[in-house]
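Subject: complex prediction, re-run

Hi both,

The earlier run crashed halfway through, so I resubmitted it with identical inputs.
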Amino acid sequence: MTDDETTTYAYLCIGCPLGCRLEVDEDDQGDIIEIRGSSCRKGDRYAKQEHTDPRRNVTTTVAISGGIWPRLPVKTNGEIPKDQVLEACEELRRVRVQAPVKMGDVVLDNLLGTGCAVIATRDMPAID
Amino acid sequence: MIDNRPHLLHSKYDVVVAGGGPAGLGAAMAARNAGAERVLVVDREAEAGGILLQCIHSGFGLHHLGQELTGPEYAQRILEQALDDGVDVLTNAYLLDIDNDQNLKLLSVDHGVSILDTRATVLAMGARERTRAAIRIPGARPAGVFTAGAAQRLVNLNGVLPGRRVVILGSGDIGLIMARRLTLEGVEVAGVFELMPYANGLSRNIVQCLHDFDIPLHLSTTVVEIHGRDRIDKVTVAPVDDHLTPVLSKAWEVPCDTLLVSVGLIPENELSRELRLRLDPTTSGPIVSSTMETSRDGVFACGNVVHIHDLVDFVSAEAELAGGHAGRFASGVRPPHDNVRLQPGANVAYCVPHTVTTDQPHTVYLRVRKPLEKSMLRLRDSEGAVVHERRLRYVVPAEMVTLKLRPGVLEGFQGDALQVEVMPR
Ligand SMILES: Cc1cc2nc3c(=O)[nH]c(=O)nc-3n(C[C@H](O)[C@H](O)[C@H](O)COP(=O)(O)OP(=O)(O)OC[C@H]3O[C@@H](n4cnc5c(N)ncnc54)[C@H](O)[C@@H]3O)c2cc1C
Ligand code: SF4
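This time it finished cleanly. Structure:
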């Protein structure tokens, strides 16, 4: 393997506050050749996941009518692909729900086809 | 949050808790479990839950509840538990004063001014954000300068965006979280500027709040001037030298309509000062014993009002301790006094509690001044001899260090003070 067929990607491990700087070498087929820089196995696993399929939980708010606050905090009930996070938030900016809402209520199903639902993270009583 | 049940305000309580955040609610439950009959939590906001209500991101409860929750979820869980445990919660109520006989003066929307007689009090008023750095920045005083927490409240609770293009000063977790939050709401974040050569927030937040959205983090750089007439229209930023002095010849301008300042929290200690509690100049919170009792008998304290916690889980643990002792104090139990003072030594900013006993287990929280890898935490007696030591893989100022002292550790120690240090191995 010669150097010009290898591409190196850098990641910062989030596994603990040591924050190891990780490097992933990839060949021209897109396969991982080597992972460097970790101080433990957690780092290797993280680098592999981040490199091949980075995912995130999303927390944001949606508009709510008739509640004691004008915004309802929500979260995805699982991780969605990282590159869909901004689009997901745009989608959620178009959502408006009606109070009362209970913690855990589904606000939106199958967000952008990811299979994840968006759920309320608190009760929102109706204003009387 | 959960409908506050209208209830009658008694004139006598076993324990009254000031502040209904995780510290206050946790302490109230612990007081009930320790046998206190009547326990009241008062909070000045319309809802109990404290700062958690505006922290809509997840990252709460992993240690304490074994599950990662968002702030509002954590708050609702503990509020429901507290109400189940028979704790009374009075919101829209402000604790004004405590006299020497433990009479509390309360101002509330529902009951006006009331005087309550209590056997024990727990202070759990939390913290507020430092604004000093913002005030010291030269230049105009236009609109558009917020603390990061005030902006968080605006965005997450009121649904109001502070501006369209934002500069953030300070790389603590609140600033990082807000960088992501605003980006997700379609606001442009021009950059995060940090005076120190290292970021103050967790690497998780550096990655997921900045890297994910290509937001630049400028280390060893600070805001040196604010410009704008009515509304801020730009800031001047400059790198700093080894003495943290800005190098103005290398300054540049960043156009923005909003500056968020996130330079840390400071205990809400107005009441503590009024009560003339002894305060620790480093934490700005009250000095506490191993039972979380302040310098005034029967007045306990826990949570961010004592020292700034980065994890709510530690707040809940501390609250259990304070509330339990307050509950026992109310029924007349007085544990023996502490016999050892803990003094911060090399690379240690502070330790809480400030005193311990040699015959009981204790959890000591401390914060280092400088990041170190492969370090050693040592307890030394007044002669400098090592009484106890523990290896630490790394330490950073942003992460509190927890030291568990088992009863055996200090057995045989005869002195009255221990120096706590964290040095390279
Ligand atoms: C932006 C941000 C992000 C955070 N992120 C995380 C995280 O990801 N994970 C994590 O574990 N922790 C996190 N934390 C830390 C955690 O939220 C805090 O440590 C915790 O909430 C502190 O609890 P507390 O009860 O001491 O204070 P608070 O939650 O501040 O509660 C204090 C309460 O006291 C009331 N009060 C004050 N004075 C009076 C008075 N005189 N009379 C009546 N009431 C009064 C206030 O209204 C408030 O409700 C974060 C904190 C912030 C600010
Ligand atoms: S690789 Fe291991 S030690 Fe390094 S930051 Fe990640 S979890 Fe921590």
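The first helix of chain B runs from residue 22 to 33.

- K.
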